[in-house]
């Protein structure tokens, strides 16, 4: 059975500019993450469930083009996780993360990122070594060598 990590019951934690109708949901607003490990084949399956079409930045129902509101603001909605768009699941393989407590900040690092970096497309989805710090954006230079499938 898959393990389900629910992000939120209701959408809305990914903000859009104020010019969008209040009920517009970004394609980067995740509902849940699903993980299933197949021990026989040593394979981890990961699924991402968005409230709308994953990657449809402006939430207009068309992930392949920029809608009028976003275009009017000078923004773009790249097709298929194009340049500047990314998503990733960070994994701490050596279990060195320590959460913030009593005024002490969180420490430790994530080691692997699974997803698409801001320079790639869905065709480039994969697992990569990750060298970014906790709370650092998933910028291209934090994704290093691609790991074998």
Give short descriptive properties of this protein.
2 domains; 149 residues; four-stranded antiparallel β-sheet; mainly beta; three-stranded antiparallel β-sheet; 1 helix
Low-confidence runs of at least 5 consecutive residues:
none
Strand order of the largest sheet: 4-5-6-7
How far the N terminus sits from the C terminus, by CA atoms, comes to 22 Å
Shape: globular
Q: Can you count the beta strands?
A: 7
Quick gist of this model?
The protein is mainly beta. It has one helix at residues 68-72; strands at residues 3-6, 30-38, 43-50, 87-91, 112-116, 126-130, 143-146. It folds into two domains: 1-79, no CATH class; 82-149, no CATH class.
What does the model show?
With 149 residues, this protein is mainly beta. It has 2 domains: 79 residues, no CATH class; 68 residues, no CATH class. 3% of the residues lie in helices and 27% in strands. The chain has 1 helix and 7 strands. The protein has a 4-stranded antiparallel β-sheet, with no helix packed on it. A 3-stranded antiparallel β-sheet has the order 1-2-3, with no helix packed on it. The radius of gyration is 17 Å and the shape is globular. The protein starts with a strand and ends with a strand. The mean pLDDT is 88.
Topology:
Blueprint (H helix, E strand, L loop, with lengths): L2 E4 L23 E9 L4 E8 L17 H5 L14 E5 L20 E5 L9 E5 L12 E4 L3
Antiparallel strand pairs: 1-2, 2-3, 4-5, 5-6, 6-7
């Amino acid at each position: 059975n898959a393990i389900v990590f629910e992000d939120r019951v209701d959408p809305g934690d990914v903000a859009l500019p104020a010019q969008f109708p209040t009920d517009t949901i970004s394609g980067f607003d995740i509902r849940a993450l699903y993980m299933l490990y197949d021990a026989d084949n040593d394979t981890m399956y990961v699924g991402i469930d968005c409230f709308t079409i994953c990657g449809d930045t402006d939430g207009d129902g068309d992930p392949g083009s920029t809608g009028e509101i976003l275009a009017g603001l000078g923004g773009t909605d790249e097709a298929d996780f194009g340049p500047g768009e990314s998503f990733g699941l960070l994994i701490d393989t050596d279990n060195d993360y320590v959460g913030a407590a009593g005024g002490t900040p969180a420490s430790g690092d994530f080691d692997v990122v699974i997803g698409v970096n801001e320079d790639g497309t869905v065709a480039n989805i994969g697992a990569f070594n990750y060298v970014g710090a906790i709370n650092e954006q998933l910028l291209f230079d934090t994704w290093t060598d691609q790991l074998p499938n």
